[in-house]
């Protein structure tokens, strides 16, 4: 029986994870956490019977306790609740399907408690990869990517007959030593020539900056291929999502930024690829469906049956590729700049984007203001070279405040 806990169970990844659980009777949910949707949480509790659940506010938790008074389920709240759920003794894997840097501390707690991580929450690695990856190596925890591109890279690396991400008793049936884990990482770095990180290009691919001036919230929420939460959908349209994924890939696969190339591939069939030092390119293809990477992360190294539409190459006819237009979509260039600066700069990039997207969704700033504000926040920041988790969270807060002040001055 595979026992899992999910942070963000009511969201896009969270609910799709539960669909995967539903189709795999040997998978059991032992803990769930969500923000404020008590109605959905109640439904999930009644269907999946977790032992403990968390809501972010105490008010929502209190409401939930009343709703499920007939059941024997512990309800917790706040960061303490998230930490308890992340490290719940009965689980083997934590699915981090929460949005934002709030995922950092629970991920650390889970790794320290010996859990493997099915990682959807990219912000954790973007901002704290320098803390998370060494810790996972030290604790023998596997970080299994859920993000479709990273899962594709992971699958392409697994095709090479090697286990790309260290740790875990799931890999090769025994717990590797710290040293063998490090060796595996080094070997892998030597045989990767390039990671080809694919991007759909979003709904505004091919447009000029002038054409982007009047973009409304509804336009940006229409992704051509993927159905996702609102924040990541906006991020896909600005290419900031790809920027975050470049940083995520850097940490996950231990490669330099010069080895990560973004390739615009509008059909979203090749989910990413690895080019090896002998010139071979190994890619993973499939219909755009997050359930595949979720299921692959949960049952790795086993590949299981998944229902759904298959890619029909004849129907598809052709696959096309383009270079990203970083002049029209500066979000990607800013990400490389943040990643090159390193330290606390990726935190500023991420926090400024979060705030800017929230402001755009509230119709307080124009669409092009999103990347403009990220650039301004980065210019204003004094870099911390090797930030602790507390530094990261403080920089996040300072960035939010800086952006709020800038807005009130207008
Ligand atoms: P979403 O907005 O649909 O869901 C977020 C979930 O987190 C919800 O259940 C919400 O209740 C919960 N949450 C928010 N704040 C919380 C808090 N303070 N405490 C507890 N729970 C809280 O988001 P999503 O699209 O599912 O994305 C989740 C993460 O996965 C993000 O980091 C995103 O970048 C990443 N991701 C998503 C997709 C996708 O297809 N949706 C693909 C790749 C990566
Ligand atoms: Mg992705």
What does the model show?
The chain is of the alpha/beta class. The chain has a domain at 2-141: NAD(P)-binding Rossmann-like Domain (Rossmann fold, 3-Layer(aba) Sandwich). The protein contains 18 helices and eleven strands. The chain has helices spanning 12-23, 38-48, 58-67, 78-86, 104-112, 122-139, 148-158, 178-191, 209-212, 217-220, 230-238, 240-253, 291-299, 313-316, 331-341, 345-361, 369-380, 389-409, and strands at residues 2-7, 27-34, 52-55, 74-77, 93-96, 116-119, 143-145, 192-199, 260-264, 270-276, 281-285. The strands form two sheets. It has a seven-stranded parallel sheet, sandwiched between helices. A four-stranded mixed sheet has the order 9-8-10-11. α3 (58-67) links the parallel β3 (52-55) and β4. α4 packs parallel to α5 and α6 (122-139) runs parallel beside α12. The longest helix is centred in the last third of the chain and has 21 residues, at 389-409. The chain is globular and about 60 Å long. Mean pLDDT is 92; it is low at 166-174 and 176-183. The structure holds nicotinamide-adenine-dinucleotide and magnesium ion (MG). Nicotinamide-adenine-dinucleotide binds at residues 8-14, 33-35, 37, 56, 97-99, 102, 120-123, 147, 226, 228-229, 232, 290.
């Amino acid at each position: 029986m595979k026992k899992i806990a999910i942070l963000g169970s009511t969201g896009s990844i969270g609910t799709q994870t539960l669909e995967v659980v539903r189709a795999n009777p040997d998978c059991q949910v032992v803990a769930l956490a969500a923000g404020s949707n008590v109605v959905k949480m109640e439904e999930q509790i009644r269907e999946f019977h977790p032992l403990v659940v968390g809501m972010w506010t105490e008010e929502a938790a209190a409401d939930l306790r009343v709703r499920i008074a007939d059941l024997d389920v512990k309800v917790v709240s706040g960061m303490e609740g998230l930490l308890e759920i992340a490290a719940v003794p009965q689980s083997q894997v934590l699915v981090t399907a929460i949005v934002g840097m709030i995922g950092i501390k629970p991920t650390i707690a889970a790794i320290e408690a010996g859990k493997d991580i099915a990682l959807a929450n990219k912000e954790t690695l973007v901002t704290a990869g320098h803390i998370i990856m060494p810790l996972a190596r030290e604790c023998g925890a596997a970080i299994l990517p859920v993000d479709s591109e990273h899962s594709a890279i992971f699958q392409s690396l697994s095709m090479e007959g090697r286990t790309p991400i260290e740790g875990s008793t799931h890999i090769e049936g025994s717990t590797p030593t710290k040293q063998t884990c490090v060796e595996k990482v080094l070997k892998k770095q030597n045989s990767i020539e390039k990671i080809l990180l694919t991007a759909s290009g979003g709904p505004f691919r091919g447009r000029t900056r002038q054409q982007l001036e009047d973009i409304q919230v509804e336009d940006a929420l229409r992704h051509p291929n993927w159905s996702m939460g609102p924040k990541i959908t906006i991020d896909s349209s600005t290419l900031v999502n790809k920027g975050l994924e470049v940083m995520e890939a850097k940490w996950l696969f231990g490669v330099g930024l010069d080895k990560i190339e973004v390739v615009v591939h509008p059909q979203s069939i090749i989910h990413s690829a690895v080019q090896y030092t002998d010139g071979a390119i190994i890619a993973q293809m499939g219909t755009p469906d997050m359930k595949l990477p979720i299921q692959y992360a949960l049952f790795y190294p086993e590949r299981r049956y998944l229902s759904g539409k298959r890619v029909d190459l004849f129907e598809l006819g052709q696959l096309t590729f383009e270079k990203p237009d970083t002049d029209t979509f500066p979000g990607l260039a800013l990400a490389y700049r943040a990643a090159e600066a390193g330290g606390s700069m990726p935190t500023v990039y991420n926090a400024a984007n979060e705030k800017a997207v929230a402001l755009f969704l509230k119709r307080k700033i124009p669409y092009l203001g999103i990347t403009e504000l990220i650039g301004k926040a980065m210019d204003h920041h004094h870099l911390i070279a090797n930030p602790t988790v507390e530094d990261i969270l403080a920089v996040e807060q300072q960035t939010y405040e800086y952006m709020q002040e800038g807005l009130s001055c207008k």
